[in-house]
Every structure is written in structure tokens, then in C-alpha cells.
Task: structure prediction
Amino acid sequence: MKKVLTILVCSILMAFQSCKEETTSVVEVISPQEIYDAVYSKDANAQLVDVRTASEYTVSHLKNAQNICVTNNDFQEKVKTLDKNQPVYVYCKKGGRSAQAAKILTEMGFKKVYDLQGGITNWKEKGLKTEM
Result:
């Protein structure tokens, strides 16, 4: 009887363990050069998102970046158009809003989220090009 009870308890514990949802999405803060290499050299279909306001975006932005402002109420609705299984690269001016956006994206189930260290300010300081 003791053996049966032990097996039953172990089975129940294993069942609960297998039902536990795994969180595999992690935000990785990467350098401007790493983003440049990934987005412009390795992955032509990279999802690059400028999470600043539309007015900031029009002043300057990274080539091929789409503007989805994290402080707008419709941010979560707009990012649903992105592919959750493909890497997403986010940036803002210095890193605060992109960190907020990255957190939201991982909570929404995006698998790989990369945040530009120091934002577009750091990008420019490294001598990398922007568009207007």
C-alpha cells in the first residue's frame, strides 16, 4: 500500500511539473554594432521597432524601422502584427522606453526580444547612420 501511495504522489507531482508553463522569452540588451550586424547583415526580415513617438521618429530613425510608440494606448494591439517566433529588435532614445516595450513583448509571448543598449543616442555616438 505504501508503494502505491508513493507512486501515486510521484505521478501527481510529475503531472503538475509537466503542466508548468516554460518561460523561454528573455530580453537581451545588445550593442549598436550587434543590432547593426543582425538587422542589416544577417537577417533581411528582421523586425526592427522604434518605440518612440511619431514626432521623434520623423526627426531620425534606423533604416527599415517601423514606428510603434510604446506610450500609446494601442501599442499592444499594433505589435500583434509582428511575428512572435521571429526576433524583435526595439529601441528608443536612451533605453528606458525600449526596456518597457521589451517587457511587454515578452509578456505577450514574443520569443526573442533584443533591446538596443543606450538607444538611438548610443547608435549615433558609435557613428552609425540614421534616416530622416
Observations:
- Residues 2-19 form the longest helix (18 residues).
- The two ends are 76 Å apart (CA to CA).
- The chain has a mean pLDDT of 85.
- The domain at 23-125 is CATH 3.40.250.10 (Oxidized Rhodanese; domain 1).
